[in-house]
Structure formats: C-alpha cells, structure tokens
Amino acid sequence: MDHRKCSKTALQNAADNSKYVELVRSGEDYFLRLEKLIDKAEKEIHIQTYIFENDDTGNRIASCLKKAAQRKVKVYVLLDAYGSAALPNSFAQDLVQHGILLRFFSPLFSLNNFYIGRRMHHKIVVADEKMALIGGINIADKYHGTTGSEPWLDYAVQLNCPAAKNLQILCSDYFFKKGSSKKIPPVLHSAGSALVGILQNDWLQQKTEVCDAYTNAFIHAEKEIVIVGSYFLPGSRLAKALKKACRRGIRTTVILAGISDVPLVRRATEHLYSSFLDHHMRIFEWNRSVVHGKAAVVDNKWSTVGSFNLNSLSCYGSIEMNVEVHSVEFAENLRAGFEMVISECSEITKGSLRQRDGILNKLGNWISYQMVRTIMLFLTFLPHLRFLKNYRL
After folding, report:
1. Where does the record place a coiled coil (predicted)?
2. What is d(CA 188, CA 173) in angstroms, rounded to the nearest whole number?
3. Among 62, 138, 318, 358, whose Cα sits 20 to 30 Å from the Cα of 214?
4. pTM here?
5. What is the pLDDT of residues 248-278, one digit of tens each?
C-alpha cells in the first residue's frame, strides 16, 4: 500500500514538473512550441540567437514575429553580427519596417574596437516574463530538419515558471546594453518540485556561472556523468575535473559528433579519444546528423542545457547562457533521451580506435588539435586585451 502511494506521488511530481519545465529536442516540436509562444504573447517578446537564417524556418519565425508586432506586442530581436552575417539587409529591414526592434551584437570588425572572439552565443526566446525557451537551437532549417535530412541533434528547455522573468530581465539588459552594469547572482526558482536556475558565462564581465556549475557537478558526482558535447575540447579546468571523477570510479559517458559542420574541431576531439578511453570514459559517436547539443546529466538529479560548449571559447570568449535543473524527474527524462541517442550511436573502443588510427590519421588529428587550440587561444586572447582597457558592451 505504501509503495503504491509512493509511486503515485512520484508520478504526480513528474506531471507537475512538466507543467513548469519541459525538455524539448530540435526539430518540428521545438519550432511549433516557438510559434505558439510568439502567437500567445500579449506584451513583450525577446529573441536572442546566434544564427537566424533566411530560409524556410527563418521566414516562418519572422512571419510570426511580424504578426506579433502588428498586435502591438513589443518585439526585441538581438542577433550576433558574425553568426547571422549571412542574413540579407532586406530581411533585417523588413523586420524593422514591421515594427520589430532589431539589433546586431557588435560588428565583426571595427576600426576603433577590433575583435574577433567575443560573440553573443545565446539561444533564448522569452515572452511576457512567463514562458521561455532556452537551449542550443538556432533559427534555421538545419535545426528543424528537411525532407532529405534530420535536424541537428540539439536540446532546449521550455520554462513556465518564475525563472522566465529572470531570463527576460537578463535579455533586456543585453538588448539595451546593460549587460556590464547589472550582475544578478544566480538564483534557484521553484518549478513544481524542481528548482531551476539561469546561468551566465561572460568571462569579460567576470561571470563564469556555467563553467563553475559544470566543474562543481563533476567534482561532486557520486555515480554517473553523461554529456552530449558539440565541439568538445574541454580546457584544463574542466578536463581535470572530468578525469578526477573517472579516477574516483564515476561512470562517465560522452556523446560526440561522428560528423560535424566543423571537421577540424571533430578531428581535434578525436585526438583526445585515447586519453578519454585511458580514463575509462565511454565514447559514442552520433552519425545521423550533426551534433550541436550542449547538455549534461549528473547522478540523475542535476541537469543543464544551453548554449555553452565544453571548450575554452565558451569558457573565456563567448557570451553564453544555460539553464540548470535540480530535479530527479527531469534528469531521468533527459537521461532516457540520451539512452535513445546512444542506442543509435557507434561506440568507440580501444579496438575500434586502433582500426582507424593509422599514422596519417593520427598525424592529421594531432595537427587539427594544435591548430584548433591555437585558434581558440587567439580568439579568447583578444577579449582579455579589451578587458584591460575597461571595454564595455
């Protein structure tokens, strides 16, 4: 009898949590939710994304935004100038002419303020301080999928809880260039029986919340760590925490890209496979589409999803935002999703690695690793110089 009551309570908690915080995967489901969020907005919408493309998906979302503006909803769109550089001027002008407030985060080049590395890497939509989508999914066909190709593997979280208000404040600060003046400490908000926090990473503004959260989760892991990692090249701090966890006997699994939109980075990651395997990590490669997800589950109770890649560029160069969820139910749901992905992956073992590790392949991976490390150091070094000059957003 007691067991039945406990089971009923657990199911009720899971149902309650899904009202407030819900896992979303890339594809039609994400974009249907995005359309619904925009269509139901009554006062204010913020969209901040790295890539907004002039394709079927981009035009579909743009149409929704224009309709919202016609309903007198205030629509704020912040795009990264580099990530969305291919967006035609006519597309941007059409948004503005329909009453949408559009801003690009910093030009790539500037005579008085030259820099490359610091990018606005958010993927956030929030409406009326009530509902939000936050994750790693940009607005483009490749994240939706087409008739001939699957969507890139990625994740987001839909929030219907007080964390959405926190998120809208942060988005407003960035849009109106107040990002450097306001430092809101991370707060855990109630979402049913779950706790939800918004984490920022902007090294230039002394915000390292995402990097710190990952590191602490790895350090304090008791049983298991599972990561979906695009562009996976953890710096010394995160790599050290992961390897220490492995030495403590923590089961560690990473789901990585078998194919990538940046082959050089994929080969650089492959250079690290031997070290990962030596530390008893399990490696799985997803080959059905590009891996773009940035998500993790630790001990089936702590989860994070967002824009933050486990590499030095996200740690020190880009402006990132993640959501962290303290919930067994949410973690188990995300973990189950990872298991479905793993079931369709190829596992990399020492044996399979030896079969592909010819001299030329090893040399190519090593060269790729050195090149990517050098590029990342360069891209993150320039923001450090600007920090010394008290650069402000």
Report:
1. none
2. 20
3. 138
4. 0.89
5. 999 999 999 999 999 999 999 999 999 999 9
